[in-house]
Amino acid sequence: MNVILNEIKIIMEQNKEQYLPQVKSSDLEENGAVYFMNSKDGTEFEWYVNDKLPPFMMFYDDEAKMGAVKLLLYRDGTVQVIVFDNAGKNMCKEVYTRIECGEEQLLDLAVLLRHQAEDSGKWNANIESLCTDIPVSDEMRNTFLNHKSRYDEIKKMRVLMNQGALVSRRIVEEGWKVGFMYRREPNNPADSGWTFFAGNEDERYNSDVKNIVLMSLGEVCHDLDRDVYEYITAPVGTEFIRISETAFEVDKKNKAIFVTKR
Predict the structure, then answer these.
(1) H/E/C letters for each residue in the chain?
(2) Which of 147, 166, 201 is the last residue of a domain?
(3) What is the pTM of this model?
(4) CA distance 21 to 6
């Protein structure tokens, strides 16, 4: 077995023994086997978008088959272990540690897991069933690296959606859709630069900071007005007005804002 995978298994077993002493190996799926949970997003997605490998899991061997121990391994070697008692219903411990290895070694493990799992049609497999003691070829590594560009836009969008935006309380509390939005230069890395108004506010209303709410851009798009989503990658300096129930256009100062409620 790959050296890092073996260390993952040891860490999970140690945490199981320490924090679940009442749980016997026979209480766990395949006597405490470790599973590589790649079926949700796949190895490449997790590596390039979330900066980690897919989770590694031990499961309780009962009807519900909930998790007993979960391990996340990040690209910088950080390890997060989450332990669940009460047959998986309760998180009882969270532990952080490290696996001392270089990112190149972790990259090779990611390449190997993709090759031996996804490329072989294996999903959520016992790590013992994966042939991981083979060398990583240049072809395998280059194929994995060449796929990075597929995920760049996804990662950029995820960062953007977590950044902050300023939103009129008329949108947040009164149910109006976004009628006018503009993007200024962000103040810091956590700022998207976007500001959203319903379009029926006056200057006095907008000048009162109590009428403006700071929230994530993702909350605006998902919870308040999904119509704005396709416009949020527009560059700094862009201004949009709503022109219909679902559409916006660049504000040329020659049209009235279409003001409407959700």
Answers:
(1) CCHHHHHHHHHHHHHHHHHCCCCCHHHEHHHCCCEECCCCCCHHHHHHHCCECCCEEEEECCCCCCEEEEEEEECCCEEEEEEEEHHHCEEEEEEEEECCCCHHHHHHHHHHHHHHCHHHCCCCEEHHHCCCCCCCCHHHHHHHHHCCHHHHHHHHHHHHHHCEEEEEHHHHCCCECCCEEEECCCCCCCEEEEEEECCCCCHHHHHCHHHEEEEEHHHHHHHHCHHHHHHCCCCCCCEEEECCCCCEEECCCCCCCCCCEC
(2) 147
(3) 0.76
(4) 21
Cα 74 from Cα 106, distance rounded (Å) = 9
Question: Quick one: pLDDT at residue 103?
Answer: 87
Instruction: Please state, for a pLDDT cut of 70, what percent of the chain lies above it.
Output: 100
* pLDDT 10s digits, 193-225: 999 999 999 999 999 999 999 999 999 999 999
**Structural domain contains residue 177:** yes
Residues of the chain with pLDDT under 50: none
CA 71 to chain centre: 16
In terms of phi and psi (left: phi > 0; alpha: psi -120 to 50; beta: otherwise), the region of 180 is beta
Structural domain harbouring 189: 155-250
In a domain, 11, yes or no: yes
What is the token pair recorded at 197? 């108004």
